[in-house]
Amino acid sequence: MRAFFCLELDEEIQAGLARIIGRLQRRITSRVTWVPEENLHVTLNFLGEVDQTNLPRLQSAAEQLLAELSPFTWQLDRLGCFPRPERPRVIWAGAQREPQEIQVLHADLETQLQLLGYPPERGRFTTHVTLGRVKERGPGQAQIAPELERVPAFAYRVNSCGLTLMESRLTPAGAVYRPCFRLAFPNSAQDHGL
Q1: How far apart are the first and last CA of the chain?
Q2: DSSP letters along 49-97, please?
Q3: 3-state secondary structure of 95
Q4: What domains can be seen in the chain, in order of their start residue?
Q5: Over the stretch 60-92, which tens digit does the pLDDT of each residue have?
Q6: 159 beta partners
């Protein structure tokens, strides 16, 4: 199965981001595959193919890592594109002020995963929620960045209180996500409903 570690978003934030997606859908003429509201999340580490027999080892490694962590808050408040605005392939929402806690969590988790035989991801990690993937190249790509700039300012306060290993099944209708396990940061289960 394909799997990734992520930070889930609450339904209110997913709904807010879905409204932004709806606005962009109406204004962007390029062919874009938009992420369904229920699939919006922050990917920390993409594992690729995972044998189900490895799930206990992955859970144990993640539990050890989380033992020292506390819940934290951060803000989703900007839009952007990867790899660059002139030729976007991914449209995303992120943080103007990169959350240090997420950077540390990503790096520490990547170290644990390497010990289990998973290769490190290429490139620099940036906290983001993928909103859409641009499926066509050409002149329409140039209009995407200006449309992102026209979206009214927003700020969603995110309470991150746990880590999820998510299975991703690819279907003709798109990706279907199913949690393999959810782990709460210490003392966060009662406070944040995990």
Answers
A1: 24
A2: E--GGGHHHHHHHHHHHHTT---EEEEE-EEEEES-TTS-SEEEEE-SS
A3: coil
A4: 2-183 (3.90.1140.10)
A5: 999 998 988 889 999 999 999 999 888 899 999
A6: 73
